[in-house]
């Protein structure tokens, strides 16, 4: 992991105020691994909403889908994310459907800087094929499901504050781009404000 100069990390944390850096995007885009590394580079706390949901429910994500269904999962996800967002600054990686839920999205917009990790279909499919922990893809044709989710979710992900092209390069490269863009966004967002 490439270290970030302390002064730069501090400048970004100050510019965040109490807000969180929130990763959104489809399954396999890299939200969990990139979020974790960005948090480490900034010495900020890291929360992954799926991990948090698993901890509070003492069940895995597939078990929750199996036992209660997607709707209940979304309600739980919303509760967890709203609570987590109260304690920024931090890095929060969400599950792919979180930003699609209107209430969850409103909270992210109000209390976070949203970063869409955008990747192409081939890369997403290659990455999700490594683990069998995504219930929405436990179907005969997961590629078709992913393509359908792309069509339906992209118009929503597009409303994120920042878009980063997640591609087949080292994580360090993606993390450095995220940090640059978040800093740029925060500084430009404060420009023109009356003090
Ligand atoms: N830039 C990258 N280079 C190499 N592997 C990556 C990169 N980004 C993500 N991955 C891998 O892709 C898989 C999915 O990443 P993950 O963070 O779980 O995605 P998400 O949380 O968006 O579903 C993991 O195996 C992860 O290690
Ligand atoms: O896209 C989705 O609806 C989901 C994405 C998953 O998280 P990742 O995006 O981290 O894989 C997880 O929250 C759940 O399986 C549902
Ligand atoms: Mg994840």
TrEMBL record:
Keywords: Amino-acid biosynthesis, Aromatic amino acid biosynthesis, ATP-binding, Cytoplasm, Kinase, Magnesium, Metal-binding, Nucleotide-binding, Transferase. Pathway: Metabolic intermediate biosynthesis; chorismate biosynthesis; chorismate from D-erythrose 4-phosphate and phosphoenolpyruvate: step 5/7. CDD domains: SK. Its cofactor is Mg(2+). Mg(2+) binds at residue 32. InterPro entries: P-loop_NTPase, Shikimate/glucono_kinase, Shikimate_kinase/TSH1, Shikimate_kinase_CS. Catalyzes the specific phosphorylation of the 3-hydroxyl group of shikimic acid using ATP as a cosubstrate. PANTHER family: SHIKIMATE KINASE, SHIKIMATE KINASE 1, CHLOROPLASTIC. This is Shikimate kinase. It comes from Limoniibacter endophyticus.
């Amino acid at each position: 992991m490439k270290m970030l100069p302390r002064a730069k990390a501090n400048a970004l944390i100050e510019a965040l105020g109490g807000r969180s850096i929130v990763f959104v995007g489809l399954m396999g885009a890299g939200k969990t691994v990139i979020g974790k590394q960005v948090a480490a580079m900034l010495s900020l706390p890291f929360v992954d909403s799926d991990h948090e949901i698993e901890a509070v429910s003492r069940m895995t994500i597939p078990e929750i889908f199996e036992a209660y269904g997607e709707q209940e999962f979304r309600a739980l996800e919303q509760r967890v994310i709203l609570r987590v967002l109260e304690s920024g600054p931090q890095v929060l990686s969400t599950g792919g459907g979180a930003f699609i839920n209107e209430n969850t999205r409103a909270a992210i917009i109000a209390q976070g800087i949203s970063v869409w990790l955008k990747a192409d279909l081939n890369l997403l499919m290659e990455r999700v094929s490594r683990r069998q922990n995504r219930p929405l893809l436990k179907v005969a044709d997961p590629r078709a499901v992913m393509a359908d989710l792309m069509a339906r979710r992209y118009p929503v992900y597009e409303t994120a504050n920042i878009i980063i092209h997640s591609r087949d390069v080292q994580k360090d490269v993606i993390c450095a781009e995220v940090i640059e863009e978040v800093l740029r966004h925060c500084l430009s967002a404060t420009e023109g404000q009356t003090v």
